[in-house]
Structure formats: C-alpha cells, structure tokens
Amino acid sequence: MYFNTEKRGLRHLVCVDADDTLWDTHRLYLKHREQFVDVLRRGGLNTEDAISVLEGIDAVMLKVKGLGPQRYSSSLLATYAYLCGQQNLPVTADMLGAIDVTMSTVTHELPELYEDAVPFLQTVQRFARVVVITSGNRIVQKHRLERYGLDKYVKAVIESPHKTKELYEQVLRSYEARCLTWWMVGDSLAYDVVPAVQAGFRAVHVRRNNWHVFNDVDVPEGLEYHTVSDLTEETVREQVEEPIPT
Length: 246
Known about the structure:
Blueprint: E1 2-3, E2 12-16, E3 23-24, H1 25-42, H2 50-65, H3 69-86, H4 93-108, E4 112-113, H5 117-124, E5 128-134, H6 138-148, E6 156-159, H7 165-175, E7 181-186, H8 189-199, E8 202-206, E9 226-228, H9 234-239
Parallel strand pairs: 2-5, 2-7, 5-6, 7-8, 8-9
Antiparallel strand pairs: 1-6, 3-4
Helix pairs in contact: 1-4, 2-3, 3-4, 7-8
C-alpha cells in the first residue's frame, strides 16, 4: 500500500477498481493472447483449440490463485504444457522463456485510459477519500497512476489477489471511524460488487463489456447495487459524485 498526502475533512470513502474500470486492460490482454498463440504456433503446436484451453485453465486458476498477474502467467504455462501433452511434444526451456517474455509485456505495457476516468476522479476527490483496490502488481499500478496523472487524486492503493468479503471488511474497519459513507466502484460483479456489498459497502457496477468470467457470479437475491455503462452516467453522478450531507 502507498499513500498520498491525506486531505482533512473528507467524510466519504470511494474505493475504485483499476484494471478495466479506470483503464482498458482487457484489450491489452486480448492483444497479447494472440501473441501467445503465435509463440505456440512457431513452436510447432497445433493452436486450433489454444484459446478455449487457455480460457478453461484460467477459470480454474482464478479460483485457486485469485486475480493477480501471477495467475495469468500460470495459465499460459499450464496451457502450453497441456497442449504439449495432447500433441506428444516436449516442453522446452526456449518456449517457456518466450511465453514468459509475452507475459511480461502485458504487465509493463501501458493500457488505454478510459475517457471517463479523469473527470470522475476529479469530481469525487473533492469530497471523498479515493482508494484504489486492485489485484494488479502494486508497483505496476502505481506507475500507471503516475503516468496518467491520477496519483494526485488517490489517497491509497490496496493490493490483493483475492478481492473477497473479508478484504472489504478489513478496508471498512480501517475507514469507518472517519467516513460516513462507503462506496465500491468496479467492472466486476464477482470481485468488485458482490463481496463489497456483502461487507457493508454501497456499490456501482461499471459495465465495460470485457471479461465475462469476472461477472460470472450468482448475485444473492435482494442484494442491491447500481449498474452503469460508464463513469459519467447519471446514476454515478447522483449516487457517488454527490456527498450525503453531514
């Protein structure tokens, strides 16, 4: 976790996801997924089923390792090993190295910033403590915030590969004595919205049309949250960008 200069008098907390909420990581992963398939193809593998195998393995890894980048790296390597086994080909050090290079470019390339990210944060930071809760690498995410000039709006960054109810309860305990309202804003029902609401947050689900697996969750009956297609919609302005009177 890293901290900016704390602003006094802010009685509201707005937590925001980073990847695919503030910037478009999904498109970056799709681009590099094709590069991974090219690496397999150049290594002599039949790649007809490579994407479907990768998606299946990654869904399992997601439950075991959480959301962090280490999960996706493990999924790439496991996909390569599986396809080698299916096609009676050896796993080689050269191929493992090439796949590792592919993954490192994903984590270090700068994704495209969503147009609504800056105006949203500019408005919210005037009355709320803004905390980024991310499953990405802390150093990488800090670098992205700085490159985009978003770090001046953010009070803290919390990194965890497992965005669970317990994590959000821990965040709530850290801020509840200083804040009157608590919000979580993110693109994933499974990891940003449902566990946050269960922990006591209000939540806004931002539909970014990306990873379906991150929204593959049975929403408990009666669980309330808002859904918007971007961070400038009326619901966000009314519910999050307007502080409740103190």
